[in-house]
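Figure 2 data, in text form.
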Amino acid sequence: MKNKVILLVDDDDDDCELFVAAIASLNKNIITTISNNALEALNNLKAATVLPDFIFLDMQMPYLNGAEFIHESRKVPELSKIQVVVYSSHSHEVLQNLTKEFESVQIFTKPNNFKELVSTLDSIL
């Protein structure tokens, strides 16, 4: 079975740690990489030879926020095909408003507990 490749773009180390632990608990063939900076992630993706299957993206980050990241990545044909999942502390309604202009973007609010995070990730992946 082919490994799924995930890029997590989030500047909160604690959230990244929790996300990686949740992915590991799924016992699926998933490779997770992390970028703490959306601008750096965008530049790395543009130069990459292997692209992720999913990008999990926080909305509030320095240098380039999540909406700006999506907008810029959609300008690059290869990157526009990657499924983006907005993963943020904003409420679902706020996330919908922030991402309504983008097609093929899933959203979910960062859950309050580990079990809920695992369940949500399992349903997406």
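Caption note: Residues 5 and 52 are 5 Å apart (CA to CA).
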